[in-house]
Amino acid sequence: xxxxxxxxxxxxxxxxxxxxxxxxxxxxxxxxxxxxxxxxxxxxxxxxxxxxxxxxxxxxxxxxxxxxxxxxxxxxxxxxxxxxxxxxxxxxxxxxxxxxxxxxxxxxxxxxxxxxxxxxxxxxxxxxxxxxxxxxxxxxxxxxxxxxxxxxxxxxxxxxxxxxxxxxxxxxxxxxxxxxxxxxxxxxxxxxxxxxxxxxxxxxxxxxxxxxxxxxxxxxxxxxxxxxxxxxxxxxxxxxxxxxxxxxxxxxxxxxxxxxxxxxxxxxxxxxxxxxxxxxxxxxxxxxxxxxxxxxxxxxxxxxxxxxxxxxxxxxxxxxxxxxxxxxxxxxxxxxxxxxxxxxxxxxxxxxxxxxxxxxxxxxxxxxxxxxxxxxxxxxxxxxxxxxxxxxxxxxxxxxxxxxx
Length: 405
Prior knowledge:
Elements: E1 22-28, E2 45-46, E3 49-50, H1 51-60, E4 67-72, H2 77-84, E5 93-94, H3 99-109, E6 117-122, H4 130-139, E7 145-151, E8 156-160, E9 163-168, E10 174-176, E11 180-183, H5 184-193, H6 202-208, E12 213-217, H7 228-240, E13 242-256, E14 260-263, E15 266-269, E16 273-274, H8 282-295, H9 300-303, H10 317-329, E17 333-342, H11 352-363, E18 370-375, H12 381-384, E19 388-400
Parallel strand pairs: 1-4, 1-6, 4-5, 7-12, 17-18
Antiparallel strand pairs: 2-3, 6-11, 7-10, 7-11, 8-9, 13-16, 13-19, 14-15, 17-19
């Protein structure tokens, strides 16, 4: 879904009592280093975004999930905040020495929201189909626990010293996945009851205390990232599930009295100002129209009519965030933004880096996914005569196709 803009998630309560029906608890405190690199696997980049962010956004976008809570390791502070920038998540929960400890600590920390159901998910599983989340949640209406799983289809062998010792009967064997769903009170109590024994997943804990665990259909694309090959496989799934959309936008505003202009949200001193119904930020207007164009969602004037006094002197950032929210609601993400500013003055080059960084921050993108260029018209036309500034933008989006998740 593209890195979502810096707006609070609608289900994040900033004050007052918190009551959540379903909480997604993402366990991402692992320190495993089997995957090479300078960071744990949940923070490795996949198709331009950290692995952890993919899963978090899947739960944030699901209408039945009321709160997304992440359990992390404070040793990964910088990686964590980079991964979740702009998602509006509650503060993370410090994990424990093992995954089981981390899940237990996470369950204890969300007791304030009194959830009816909890979905416990591995932070290293980036692809979480919404239909699979649906199945897990629905199964909890009929029982205390449910997990997504795939039947084992390969012949299984047991071996020792490089030699097969026996063939294992694969009948009734399943590959467990996450998110694993539970009625909150039941799994919270179960975790507290088995602290002195080790278990490989939360379903095993439920089984140990006698909770029946239902099986629902898993998803082949719900890959757990452990090796470089897993990253490659996940990348292929993501590419196959999305189509590329390209939109263009153009905006122009004339000069009038004032002492500065605002471009891409950055204030630049000048002997004139740009005149418009809102703040006349031609860059943000052009990028907004480019996003709306790629979505086939009209133009900025349709969403924010200049005749409406509500938008007089409005910060154009909110127009852009609106377009981003429309995109995110459809499961899209921004791959790249390219902007060209057309003017004789003020000189743009000293401010390009600041504008690109600010625009990337609004969109929640890495810096190399935003390009800002500038050109003149060599004295020709209204920009050449110094009568105003124009901007054109191109937005490249990845949107779920009909076979996507």
